[in-house]
């Protein structure tokens, strides 16, 4: 059976929750090599992980940071099993309503494969997605019009906030091409600064959830999805330190299913051991 393709988000910057640092960067991942993807408290993200099979390909993505971007390639090394951190009161993402005999939350193990030669940022993907199908940006002309079409359909740019996302094979191939070949100027993909008092532009439009949810580019990455702290996790954006306060308020807001409206976004914050 052919592998499926996914994108999973994690926070590269330190953030303390219950006296534990929940950051998990590409350096941490490279160090431990294999890690359980614990802490996801969003039903949709959980269900996607339950579909994963050993050998599926995963794009590891930094979210809730100044420059949200894909940093490495990895793969699923163990299929979904109960996320035991949900019933650990000392864990940052403890869920008092979970039941050991009928687990609500699941996780998979993911293994590091290789860093990308070029980091593929959300800003770059949005720029490509915003181009006319017959007008491929010159600096990435090697992806051609079919590549532009594939990026336009990528969940990261169409809905962003979820921390675990499907990636179509044709889209995966385009992202891999970008990661291998580069060609763009980093200044072209850096988050744009906003003047004081200036209105914040966001692709989220009316998609606001709970408190504020900044979009990835120049917004709290956390606001992204709101599932972990990244909310674009889902969403990936500028992680102003206001994010932790906003995320804190979000995590206190439970939805009808008892899940944090913000924590349910599926953001990858990890307390996995970093040796």
UniProtKB/TrEMBL annotation:
Main location: nucleus
Domain EVE: 4-175
A single GO cellular-component term on record: nucleus
Positions of region (Disordered): 185-275
Record-linked InterPro entries: 5hmC_binding, EVE_domain, PUA-like_sf, THYN1-like_EVE
Regions of compositional bias (Acidic residues) in chain numbering: 214-231
Keywords on record: Nucleus
Pfam family, one: EVE
Location in or out of the cell: Nucleus
Family matches, as Gene3D superfamilies: ph1033 like domains
Protein name, per record: EVE domain-containing protein
């Amino acid at each position: 059976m052919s592998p499926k393709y996914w994108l999973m988000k994690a926070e590269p910057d330190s953030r303390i929750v219950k006296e534990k640092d929940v950051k998990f960067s590409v350096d941490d991942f490279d160090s431990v090599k294999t890690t359980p993807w614990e802490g996801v408290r969003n039903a949709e993200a959980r269900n996607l992980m339950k579909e994963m099979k050993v050998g599926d390909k995963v794009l590891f993505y930094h979210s809730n940071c100044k420059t949200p971007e894909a940093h490495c390639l990895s793969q699923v090394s163990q299929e979904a099993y109960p996320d035991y951190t949900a019933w650990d009161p000392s864990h940052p993402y403890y869920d008092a309503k979970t039941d050991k005999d009928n687990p609500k939350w699941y996780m998979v193990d993911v293994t590091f494969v290789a860093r990308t030669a070029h980091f593929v940022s959300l800003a770059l993907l949005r720029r490509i997605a915003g181009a006319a199908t017959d007008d491929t940006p010159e600096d990435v002309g090697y992806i051609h019009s079919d590549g532009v079409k594939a990026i336009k359909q990528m969940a990261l740019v169409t809905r962003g906030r979820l921390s675990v996302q499907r990636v179509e094979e044709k889209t995966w191939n385009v992202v891999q091409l970008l990661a291998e070949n580069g060609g763009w100027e980093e200044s072209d993909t850096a988050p744009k600064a906003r003047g004081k008092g200036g209105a914040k532009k966001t692709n989220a439009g009316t998609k606001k959830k709970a408190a504020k949810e900044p979009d990835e580019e120049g917004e709290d990455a956390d606001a992204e999805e709101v599932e972990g702290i990244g909310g674009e996790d889902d969403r990936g954006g500028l992680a102003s330190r206001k994010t932790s306060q906003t995320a804190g308020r979000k995590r206190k807001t439970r939805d009808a299913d008892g899940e944090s409206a913000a924590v349910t976004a599926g953001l990858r914050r990890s307390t996995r051991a970093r040796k």
